[in-house]
Amino acid sequence: MSKAVDPKLKQLLRNGGDFDPDTGSDLLSVAASEKGLAWCVAKCDKARSRSAVFRAVVKAVDYPQFFGSSFDSFFDCLCDSLLDQKEGLVLVFEKLHSADAAIVMDGVQFMQVLNDAVGFARDNGRVFIFGIQHAGKHPDDQPGVVNNWSDEPA
Hints:
alpha/beta, four-stranded parallel β-sheet, globular, 154 residues
């Protein structure tokens, strides 16, 4: 890592926490790679519920099973994934529709679990960094249009 690293970036790499993926991904990805952190992206664009966001995380961190929609299980998934890494991991929530009612309803608890995982990582000699790329609200449902997980026509 170069000596001209931003002090905030240095602190983030040391302590973990959250970052803004819209402005900080390039520098962080290079620095995280140099530090040995795994880089995982949870593709949340189609997620309209807590369970769908959790499925995106399971896929991103290559967790061996889906755990349902429990926040305790989400925390366990993050902790297990952190312990599987030598140094820690960066988890980016790409295009999370954080203005959707179902996501807003769980927002405080969701952030609490992510911050608890930062503390767990620190207590276990790892680093956990997360970033949320906010994508506003999904468009309202339209009659006759089916929203599904596939971009392929039915």
